[in-house]
Amino acid sequence: MIASDGTVNVSGHNKAEILQKRFGRGGFDYVANSYKDLPVWQQARRAIVVNAGDTLVSKAAKLCEVEKIFPKSVTGFSTWRRMLRLHQWLKNLLLFVPLLAAHELTNIDHLISLLLAFFSFSLCASSVYITNDLLDLDSDRQHPRKCKRPFASGQVPIQTGVILAPLLLLTSLLLAWQVGSEFFIWLIAYFVLTCIYSLILKRLLLLDCLTLAMLYTLRIIAGAAAAHNTLSFWLLAFAVFLFLSLAFVKRYAELEIQLLSGQNKVHGRGYYTTDAPLIQSLGVTSGYASVLVLALYLNSEAVIKLYQAPEIIWGTVPVLLFWISWMWMQAHRGKMHDDPLVFTITDKASLLAGAIFAVIVVLGSTGWSW
Predict the structure, then answer these.
(1) 324 exposed, middle or buried (CB, 10 Å; 0-12, 13-18, 19+)?
(2) Is the dihedral of CA 234, 240, 245, 250 positive or negative?
């Protein structure tokens, strides 16, 4: 090992002299990325330039043969999109569910508040995702898919995340305060719960999935606060069971990936790959429980008051049954992405089921007759 010892700084000309004495001029190849290393390349046989600009490459080429260039990574829109997890912002559309369920989409004031709430939640979520990625660097680098994330792969410097995360959170809080104090409190609750999840709960068996379900449900509660709507028992019960099923799908898919990789335990989680069948049973049961809640809701007086043709709304039950069964079937076959949201927005069957569900709700609301 050759290194600085507190007296001699082994860099630049000093490094070049030491290497020349040990290996002789042209007796070694040198890998570097700094202008300080030009004197070393002058003594080297070949240069390997890493993460540097064109000017440094050209100067190194004048001193010795450049054998290999590892270009400087460019942080483009695609990298920023993956770092901020822009596709995860779709989850925050759940904020609009209470307004939709109350049939108040024409209320402009509430829509404006919800738009501010949407961006507030989205920026907060991106801040949490960045923080979580920084905390999970070791686990992500050992994961067959997560190792390609911007921080784990080295595409984005860690210091960028350290600076960006608090800035996003501050902007999120400022927007939340504009929406209202009640929404602000729910955003704080969401942020605190996500931090606890990232630091502790995601490593705890079953509690991680329960927390994920609560985080989804919190979006609906916060949306009701932003639009000043009263939440119904039916909506909350339906949301908890449905999102718990999706949380189990996520964990089941991760277990399947680890199983195919020859691992018997998920790094940084409390699960073994042998837990997959039980997770599957719990997830399917939770999903079907959400369908049961929906069916019971459709038999309540609230449906008669809100919908012109309540009998048409019953068509949503088989659609939801199909979609939940489809999701778990794909997970069982190993075709599920480790993020169910990514799978849903790219899967034709899921998109078709969502479109049919929406058409049925519209027809039931407008009172369309056969």
Answers:
(1) buried
(2) positive
Ranges of the chain whose pLDDT falls below 70: 73-75, 266-268, 368-370
**Residue 182 has which token pair?**
């009640």
Structure-token pair, residue 56: 């440094």
What is the CB-side half-sphere exposure of residue 59 using CA atoms within 13 A? 15
Predicted confidence at residue 368, as pLDDT, reads 62
Q: Which two tokens stand for residue 75?
A: 């942080």
For residue 41, the model assigns a pLDDT of 92
Q: Is 67 helix (H, G, I), strand (E, B) or coil?
A: strand
- What's the rounded Cα separation, in Å, for the pair 327 and 284? 9
Q: Are 165 and 130 in contact (CB under 8 A)?
A: yes
Give the pLDDT confidence score for residue 264 in this predicted structure.
75
Give the span between the Cα atoms of 362 and 365, in whole angstroms.
5
Which residues, in sequence order, are CB contacts of 358 under 8 Å at separation 6+? none
Residue 253 near residue 338 (C-beta atoms within 8 A): yes
Using the structure block, give the residue that is written with the tokens 């989850």. 91
Where residue 26 falls (left for φ over 0; alpha for ψ -120 to 50; beta otherwise) is left
pLDDT at 184: 96
* pLDDT attached to residue 153: 79
- Burial class of residue 255 (count of CB atoms within 10 Å of its CB; 0-12, 13-18, 19+): buried
Q: How far apart are CA 284 and CA 135, in angstroms?
A: 31
CATH of domain 74-231: 1.10.357.140
CA dist 302 → 6, 222, 254, 306 (Å): 78, 22, 39, 6
Q: In the structure encoding, which two tokens stand for residue 230, read together?
A: 């009263």
- Report how far Cα 164 is from the mean position of its chain's Cα atoms: 16
What distances in angstroms separate CA 30 from CA 15, 66, 204, 228, 322, one per listed residue? 11, 10, 46, 65, 60
Please state, in angstroms and as integers, the Cα–Cα distance from residue 79 to each residue in 94, 123, 168, 280, following that order.
Answer: 26, 17, 17, 33
Q: What are the boundaries of each domain within the chain?
A: 12-70, 74-231, 251-267+274-370
* 265-304 pLDDT per residue, tens: 766 677 888 888 999 999 999 999 999 999 999 888 878 8
Q: How far apart are the first and last CA of the chain?
A: 83
Q: For residue 365, what pLDDT is reported?
A: 84
